[in-house]
Structure formats: C-alpha cells, structure tokens
Amino acid sequence: MSEQNFSNWGRWGDDDELGALNLVTPERVVKSAGLVRRGKVYSLAADIREDGVPRLSFRTANQHFVRVFGAPTRDVAMVADDTLLIGCHGTSTHVDALCHYWTGENKLYNGFSGDLVEGRGARKLGIQNLTGMVTRGVLLDVAASKGVDCLDGGYVITVDDLEECCRRQDVRLEPGDVALIRTGWPRAYGESPDKYNRTQPGVDEASGLWLCQRDVCAVGSDNSAIGVRTEQPLPGRNVHALFLQDAGIYLIEMLDLEEIARDQVYEFLF
Known about the structure:
The model has no long low-confidence stretch (mean pLDDT about 95). The strands form 4 sheets. The protein has a 6-stranded mixed sheet. It has helices at about 25-35, 140-145, 160-170, 185-190, 195-200, 205-215, 240-245, 260; strands spanning about 65-70, 80-85, 95, 115-120, 120, 135-140, 155, 180, 200-205, 220, 250-255, 265-270. The relative contact order is 0.21. It is globular, with a radius of gyration of 20 Å. By secondary structure, the protein is of the alpha/beta class. A hairpin with a 2-residue loop joins β4 (about 115-120) and β5. It has one domain: Glucose Oxidase, domain 1 (3-Layer(bba) Sandwich), CATH 3.50.30. α6 (about 205-215) runs parallel beside α7 (about 240-245).
C-alpha cells in the first residue's frame, strides 16, 4: 500500500473485480446523460499508425496491412480488409486493466494473487470485466491552466496544480467521474522521439492520492503512463500501483485531448 495507506480493498466485497467502476451506478449514468447539450462526439483516441504518432522506444511499432482481392465484375466483388498488429501499451490509446501492474507481496487489487496472471491471460481482474464505462468525464487541462501548450518533461503535476485547474475551469470532481489530465506532451514527440521518451510530465504519489480521494473511477492522460517520468526515480508509491493495485482505479493512457481542449469542453458524457 502507499505510505498514506489508501486502499479500496474489501470496499465492495472480498470477491470484487470491478474496483472503482462500482461507483458508476445506474443513477450516475442517468445523471451523466443529462450533460449532453449539443450532441457533438469527440474521439479521444490517437491514430493507430506505424509512425508519426507517439510511441515508447522500447515498444514495437503498430503494423497495419490491407488485403485487396476479388474482381470488379458483375458476379465477383472486390473486397478490402485490414489486419492490425497492436502492442497497445506504449503505442496507442488503451485502458489498463486492474491486473496490469502490482508490487510488493504479489497481491493484485483486492488481495487477489499475482499468480492468477499468466501468459495466456488473467483469471481475475481482466479487462473483460470492463463491459462499459458510461459516466461523467472531466477534462483537467493542466497545460492551459499553467499558460503553456505543453508541460515540460519531468514536470510534476501537484495537488495545487489540480486544484487551481479545477478553479479556473469551474469544475469539481465527483464520485464515479473519469478524470482526464491534459499535459500537451504528444507535441514533444513531433519535436523529438528521444525527448518524448526521456522524461514526461505527469502526476506523482501526492496528486495521485488526491485523485483517489475524490473517488474517480478512472484517470486518463495524453502521456504514456499517467505518472511523471523523471531522469531519476522519485520517492514514494508508484502511481500505477496506487491507482490499479490499491484503489482499483482504471488508467487510460495516450489519449488525444487536443480537440476537446480547444473547444474548452470541461465536463461531458464519457
């Protein structure tokens, strides 16, 4: 557990595999649906491409193959289909399941044994438990709140930063929300993949704990791993362990938050 001993273990029963998704009740879904005003739909996913999009250097690039076959005649049609090879982590927008990361005594969220995660899948806490996440989304545009297009590499997003961002945007996190943090960091990849990979802005243990205490069901960001990456490791609990292992909070990484940030849409149906 973290030094502050934050834990959702046992909160929803000893056999619970949903984690903070339990906070997204039917009543919460109905209330969130009331946020729809204009009906505009935003895709928050980065493009799946072999190059030109952020990728961690130690991850294999995505591969995309298109097969075209048949004959353009009256009796035979032409067909085009796709094959995608996607590494997910560090290469494209994805959700971290609760079985993704753990430290210490080989215990996953809610006390499940790490031995339940094997080469062919996880017998507990797999992503198949996430059948849907329809709730209120809140964009915390920390970069804009700090008056920059992109936070510096290695910048630690503090509790003060998050609270100031909420004040500037006149929003407040509520239980069951998805909190999306914009750093602007994908811009760094366009400047230099090495710069993108060396360090990254993100939250640390203290600001991660602040998010946990607000009972969000998921935390997303446009960086590669939610937490700050510095050239020298920081003390304290790794935020992946804090969110996934301790709190049962899902992580959504490598989002594209540029369009929704430009439109200054700070709360929405996610």
